[in-house]
Design brief:
The protein is built from 6 helices and 2 strands, in the order E-E-H-H-H-H-H-H. By secondary structure, it is mainly α. It has a single domain, classed as Four Helix Bundle (Hemerythrin (Met), subunit A). It has a two-stranded antiparallel ribbon with strand order 1-2. A hairpin with a 3-residue loop joins strand 1 and strand 2. Helix 1 packs antiparallel against helix 2 (40-72).
């Protein structure tokens, strides 16, 4: 079942680790295409959705994919380091993505190029190595974990926005903190 987050689109694709991350790639590619073809008045919203999608995906990879890659795949540490460099380049392109800039198409194309390199490296090299080295139950378990993490992350922007609009009063904050803190802490 695919859950939909109104702000970012599909999350929780329902597969193993490789299927989850591959589906994330397709989601991001669809958003890149939509952003490329969007009229200027729709760009800001699509850029925000793309940013959330890519950040959620990259965090899932950093937390779940790269540690497994380092531990279970020959040459995995170097591969993970290379992917982290690509993610850094992608993040730089995201920071430069100004939807109102005259050179917006060039900036978007640069982001798409960097993301395409990321996708090709993972889908043609890393994912086959993972399928070869990891048992299927482990891949399924990691897929479920990534799916749950992404669903959780998809709710964070709305929660942060709500908290920004309705900050707790200091007394409420202290009461909430004490209620959640084990008694032996104070």
């Amino acid at each position: 079942m695919i859950a939909t987050d109104a702000s970012t689109g599909p999350v929780g694709h329902g597969g193993d680790l490789v299927a989850e991350l591959t589906a994330d790639h397709r989601d991001a590619e669809r958003l890149l295409e939509a952003l490329r073809d969007a009229p200027p008045e729709d760009r800001e919203e699509l850029a925000a959705r793309l940013t959330t999608t890519l950040v959620r995906h990259h965090l899932a990879e950093e937390v779940y994919l790269y540690p497994v890659l380092r531990e279970h795949v020959r040459g995995g540490a170097a591969r993970a380091d290379k992917q982290l460099q690509q993610q850094s380049a992608c993040a730089g392109c995201l920071r430069e993505l100004d939807t109102t800039a005259q050179d917006f198409p060039r900036r978007l194309a640069a982001l798409a190029d960097v993301f395409c390199l990321h996708v090709v490296e993972e889908e043609q090299r890393l994912f086959p190595a993972l399928r070869q080295e990891l048992p299927e139950p482990m891949l399924r378990s990691l897929g479920a974990t990534v799916r749950q993490a992404e669903l959780t992350m998809s709710s964070l922007p709305a929660e942060m926005e709500h908290r920004a609009e309705h900050p707790p009063q200091m007394g409420e904050f202290l009461d909430d903190t004490r209620a959640e803190t084990p008694k032996y802490w104070y």
